[in-house]
Amino acid sequence: MPFPSPEVQAFATGFPITLLHVSVALVLLFAGAGAYIMLTPHKEVALVREGNLAAAVSLGGILLGLAIPLSASLKASTNLTDLALWGVATLVVQLLISRLTDLVLHGLPKRIQDGEVAAATLLAAVKIATGLILGAAVAG
């Protein structure tokens, strides 16, 4: 029986590690999204289920805003501990900035609850912009 090629050996070694890193990043993403949902003064998931487009835009913005620095953390990390530390750090910063944005633009949560897509789009843009900056900071 011939030996597998070096590419197959590399894949067999690396793919389980890739799956583990992706799993950790997804757990962090869902934990961050869960924390965000608990921090918001309105029930975004319920609003989305009711067809509130503004809530969907806002929730989509936070998912992207959290995923961007997590993806940079995946790229910059050398091991799972590194990934977990950078992932948690970027999630905390992103959640703080999202909450501060809600406080500074004090009427925004109510406007989203009322279905104002313009307010939700602004909030989503802030979340995504923050995610991009955090991602770049992590990537160095």
Give descriptors for this structure.
140 residues; mainly alpha; elongated
Description:
This protein has six helices and no strands. By secondary structure, it is an all-alpha fold. The chain has one domain. Helix 1 runs parallel beside helix 4 and helix 3 runs parallel beside helix 6. The termini are far apart. The model has no long low-confidence stretch (mean pLDDT 89).
DSSP, total strands: 0
Individual helix count: 6
Percent strand: under 5%
Provide mean pLDDT, rounded.
89
Biggest beta sheet attributes: none
Query: Looking at the structure, what is the overall shape?
Result: elongated
Spans where pLDDT lies below 50 across 5 or more residues: none
Radius of gyration (CA) equals: 18 Å
Element pattern in H and E: HHHHHH
Integer tally of domains: 1
| Coarse structural class | mainly alpha
